[in-house]
Amino acid sequence: MAGCLVIFFLAFLSISGNADDVSIDCGASDTYTDENSIVWIGDDDIFKNSQSEVVQSSNTVSHVMSTLRVFTSLKKNCYTITADNGTLVLVRASFFYGNYDKKSSPPSFHLLFHGNYWATVNTTLDQLVYYEVMYVVKSDTTSICLAQTHPNQLPFISALEVRNLDSKMYAIVDPNYALFLRSRVAYGANSTVRFPDDRYDRIWRLARIGSGLVSVASDAKLIDVANAPDNPPPEVLQNAVTTSSSSGSITLNPGFPDQDVSVYMNFYFSEVTVLGTTQKRSFNAYIDNIKASEPIIPPYGEARELIANFTASANTSISLVATTDSTLPPLINAVEVFYVSGRLTDGTDSKDVEGLGELRNSFSVLQEIWSGDPCLPSPYTWDRISCSNDVIPRVTALDLSSLDLSGPLPDFSSMDALVTIDLHNNSITGPIPDFLGALANLEDLNLADNSFSGPIPPSISSNKKLKLVASGNPNLCVSGKSCQPTSTDGTITKSSPSGGGNKAVKGKKRNKLSVILGTTIPIFLIILAILGCKIYIEVVPFLVHQNRKTAAIAVIAAGQTGGANTKLGKVDEAVINEIRVNNIQHHATTSENAVQLVRQHIDCGASETYTDENSLVWIGDDGFFKNSQSAVVQSSNTVSHVMSTLRVFTSLKKNCYSFTADKGTLVLVRASFFYGNYDKKSSPPSFHLLFDGNYWANVKTTLDELVSYEVMYVVKSDTSSICLAQTQPYQLPFISALEVRILDSKMYGHVDTDYALFLRSRVAYGANSTVRFPDDVYDRIWVPARIGSGIVSVASDAILIDVANAPDNPPPQVLHNAITTSSSSGSITLNLAFPDQDVSVCMNFYFSEVTELDTTQKRSFKSYIDNYTPSEPIIPPYGEAMEIPATFTASAKTSISLVSTFDSTLPPLINAVEVFYVSGRLTDGTDSKDVQGLGELRNSFSILQEYWSGDPCLPSAYTWDRVSCSNDVIPRVTALDLSSLDLSGPLPDFSSMDALVTIDLHNNSITGPIPDFLGALANLENLADNSFRGPLPPSISSNKWLKLVVSGNPNLCVSGKSCQPPNTDGTIKKSTPSKGRIRGKMFKVLLGTTISSFMVILSIVGASHVLLVLAFFVFSAIVDAQVTVYCQPSDYTNEALMQWMYDNGISCLPITGTTTPSTSSKMTEVDCEGSIFYVDENVLQWIYDNNLPCQPTRKRKSNKLPIILGTVIPIFFLFWAIVGFVFHHRRKTAAIAAITAGQVEGATKPTDQGSLCTDGIKINIHDQTIQGIVSIDCGASRTYTDENSIDMMESSKNSQSGVVRSSNTVSHVMSILRVFTSLKKNCFSITVYKGSLVLVRASFFYGNYDKKSSPPSFHLLFDGNYWANVKTTLDQKRYNKHLSCPNTT
């Protein structure tokens, strides 16, 4: 189970079973005890990235609230508390702004706990705000974090309290969920109740008593709360509320939100007096007019607790109603109301938490920037790490470069999911830890520019898939014996398997006896001939081998290791072009035509260019989209000529317009939609609008009204895209007009460029008509406002109005009019209709005085937002513009008003206003390397220009067809499936897409050679059924990790000279390393035959053999440099042995005849892991140098054949020549046969398959008695037939059978049920024919089976789709019915 690091307050902030509670006075520096006997400690000097502040307000609630801590830099700042794993804690965070910064601008920010979202904190100017949560701690620490969500709104905290609760309290709630306090009320109490009266320091507030209710006090001296499982304090049961009428009822109004929420509610009851025999108090609790309990009879002197868990919204009603036999009205003493969270995370994987903790403890700078959960919540992942998107996330990348780290690296080997580690440009010392090479997933390791010393560990130097950069470490050695300089690119030069060091190059001395005899004693022609054969048979092979060894060493010295990845140069980012309209020649012929921007207007669906009444030039987009249609609206209510046509997109899920713009340009984009019943269906669609990979809006069109959306943002590349995405079946997206404007880069500069502005409204108060281009040079549309009662319109008498002082350049025309009040003491209230939920708002107010004021007149006023003012007094200038920007969080309850100051003689006025919603942080789009590669593919294959438009990966719901993307902040393309698209022509270079794991290009007509770069990209490549030709590139043929399929390419060759057929599964057969020696041996056989034919010319034999030696010496320079041994025939059938030899760079030659090489040459017999090889002296030295698992089996025998031949059998020279020819011919034939039979295929990796629902109940609909009908009596143990002749089946597994308690059972089927007790998703799986139309009915009858009177709410799903939110009742049947045509079984 993952846990958080202990960040702050180590020893003294501990809450275990017997420990004290923790109370932190944030911003304070001392420890003290308050009036409630609570000990408070300060947090001063703990945080380096924060400040302690003192509030300015005189409305300080308590001493604790007089100081606060504000966090000024990091995106997430955390308090971490130690606690026993499994502890139930109550955490309360309090916030009192008190205008500490004198800006009168209370901020909004996020509150988090243990990697989970808690709340959006909305502070006020001088009111205390606090939030409370209860949850079970899942590790030995828990963290409370504050996260900044808006620019210039710094998070702060006034107090943090942690209380340890009894583990049996609130036990009905699963420990995987948290309880967020909505309210905790003590009815009838005279004052707030908390510690020491409540030993758990829960705060019980007073309740406002409504009309018809009275407060009553209990006359019991003591109240026993032992029977209330959640331990309410007796003090909250000493009072109650009841009705003044014996027949009345009590209605509770907890103030639930508009949307559905899961609610957990505790009702507490205790009778206030001893009742007489004729008295009875009995009542029921009703939720939404459904009885939620058995009759409640409060006990005297004791507590009774009623627990309810239900789904509620703003319309939910909760009431207590007397039963028919009750003589007294209902009462209630106290209540707790909680919202139930979603399922809590388990935090980042504990192995990564452990490793990051080691790093944090070793390098103090990390203690300043790392706190809380490393990966969660995902918007607040720690700086300098990247995480996966798993349920329990893993850390996949670690970038600690340029942090001035010093000292040795700690052991963080537990972080075994790391793919990238970057530690360059620090001062890290000591040896490179061996564990770095053992990290199974590590691919890139950058240790450059540090002070590492000693050798490179073998785990790194022998790791073929690891890219190591270690330049700038002067004391770093490649091995324990010698230091090697790094390559020019900083990578370490790794020796190949044949690099045996200095010893390996020495070799044995050449036997020159044959040459001496052949040149000094020509009179003994017979001896010369014999010695010529001797040279041919032994010396030439030795020289060939020696030269090949020398070539291998030369290759190693030059850094030419086999299989190295080609280094890619930096390339420019590609432009993905969709419809690109050029304002000079708009009938585009290629995808490269783009909007050259200053101002662009596209009349969607039109085919001509024209100028409208506002002098705007509109161009048509007809002929650009193949997957769309141009349509003409049917409505007579057409707003303008532009709206008379539209473009509707009929097939793709995302369709985009793209325009070119300089990177960093501020643009205004306006998209307009006029349905006008173009399809004669009177069914206006709804769909999504996107920009540059970001969500923009959910477009909701109407029958005959114009709908427009406007956004302003900074372009992050040299193109920008506007996309429409279909969200509902049969609701096709369309667009009527698209307008793009370039704005001055200084405009709207108070908003961070990483955020966009969505227009809410732009109003010119007092104007008579809409203002736009040419009056507004940026073509913003300013609409007139509706003037309410008490408001009057006034015109300015200034001839000219200077807008130079207004940074956002409003047009002077919108400042020529204004509105004000008819009363000099009146105020102006702006009604902007914000949504119910909180939104971040950016608002620009524009003011200009309408007349010159005399010395006795003054217009001065303040703007108020929710009763606080963000500005100094506003005095509008005459003949000039004044702009007041404001950024704040708003909702439907937000009020905005302009109120005169006390010294003003004139009422407030306002000329114009702009209101924007501020977006979330914008994406940076898909990685530019992938955009470049996809652009090359798109430009090469025209069909892809129809499929692909906009951002390839973002938003994630609208990723391009045929690509798959990672979930990184800047996503990478990981899979490319371009199969069966009838692609033709050669493959372009998309080598920049270096995150690809899978490439599938099969079943096309792609021609030309297979590009070499493919071998450096993916693990699986399917190139089958194309027209590739030529050789297989070495980067592919030597890549043993690659699964390659190339069947159906008849002209494809494995090597440059010979074609091999693929295996039956289409994979390429890869030959053993020995195949490169065939050419040399054929040459030797040819020469041997020639020499044998001319043995009679004994006088020139010596010269012939000298030339033969030289020829072989030259030829050996061009053959491959591999270590060669002699193998037994049985070795070739051992696939594992062949792979081992291949991995170690060993070439194998066969043994033939009855004589082993050890008896015919200077060979040593060695045993390598149970296999016998014969090696010469050089290879034996290489085996020793490389520590291969081989041992000599007997001493090497010296070869005395030259003496025997030269002294004993000189008369049989012709016989030996023939024997030499035959011997080599047989060896050649056997070598070719062995090589052909000894080919090694590349290994493949198995893939895992998972099912949608595991351990579900599986039923075959075709096995039933009545064909096509399945009826399951859930909870039953037998099969039976009901009164409707329907066969009912039993069900089981991962669940329990329950019997309902209600007497209101609808039928026998409803008398039992099945309840699922463990898994979060439990499924019934039914086998049907693909394409069958099915009706599914699910029925639910709670019937108080668990005697808790708490009917549950849960989700119902089908085939991976959401069906319904099931809300059960106490004793009523509910069922849901659904019809669908399944696409799969």
Give a short summary of the structure.
This protein is an alpha+beta fold and 1385 residues long. Helices cover 12% and strands 30% of the residues. The chain is built from 15 helices and 85 strands.
Please tell me about this protein's structure.
The chain is α+β, with helices and mostly antiparallel strands. Helix content is 12%, strand content 30%. It has 15 helices and 85 strands. Strands 2, 3, 4, 8, 11, 14, 15, 16, 20, 23 and 26 form an eleven-stranded mixed β-sheet that branches. Strands 36, 37, 38, 42, 45, 48, 49, 50, 54, 56 and 59 form an eleven-stranded mixed β-sheet that branches. A hairpin with a 7-residue loop joins strand 60 and strand 61. Helix 4 packs across helix 5 (525-557). The radius of gyration is 42 Å and the shape is globular. The two termini are 37 Å apart. Keywords: Leucine-rich repeat, Membrane, Repeat, Signal, Transmembrane, Transmembrane helix. InterPro entries: Leu-rich_rpt, LRR_dom_sf, Malectin-like_Carb-bd_dom.
State the helix count.
15
Proportion of helical residues? 10-25%
Q: How large is the radius of gyration?
A: 42 Å
Structural category is: alpha+beta
Overall geometry: globular
Average per-residue pLDDT, rounded, comes to 78
Low-pLDDT segments: 1-19, 484-515, 532-597, 1068-1122, 1152-1161, 1194-1203, 1223-1267
Biggest sheet, open or closed, and with what strands and sense? 11 strands, mixed
Strand content: 25-35%
End-to-end CA span: 37 Å
Number of strands: 85
